[in-house]
Amino acid sequence: MCSDQTLRTNLTVDNCLAAFPSDRFDAFAAGQKPQFVVLVYPNMALRDLVLAQTVFQLAQGEVHLVWKTRSPLMTDSKVAVMPTTTFCACLREPNVLVVPGSAFGSIAYRRDSEVLAFLAECSARANYVIGLSSGCELLRAAGALQSMETTCGGCSRYLLLSVSSNSG
Q1: Domain count along the chain
Q2: Residue 62: closest CA among 27, 102, 17, 111
Q3: What is the pTM of this model?
Q4: pLDDT 10s digits, 63-89
């Protein structure tokens, strides 16, 4: 169920690193690099990707940028992003799954069965699942947030409420 309150936080690199305590990562204990999977898609918000990349590099993790193909994608800022792997080849048990938002791109993929199937499978096995802005909407559409209380800021909140009320 969506909360009617909007969570307000200062999203900084320090706050993001604090959100990932090392005791939750088996990879850290085993001396392995934590595995981060980030969904990339056409028209995604570049700022969301840059923030996630920065945090994960500071955590010395391995970042997998995943999409249907490995062809370059254009972000909302008209900066090309190169996926490093595909849905078929991507690992299915990341420590963290991140779904960036978009002003318009995420709406287009709300009914994309290939995207939703990947998110449903990957989110079920991840230690952490993070939706940034309207990325929460994609996770909700994939059924990844069924038993979680969710919130997001700005106009994305209304999209999330719409998906929540239509999903049963």
Answers
A1: 1
A2: 27
A3: 0.74
A4: 999 999 999 999 999 999 999 999 999
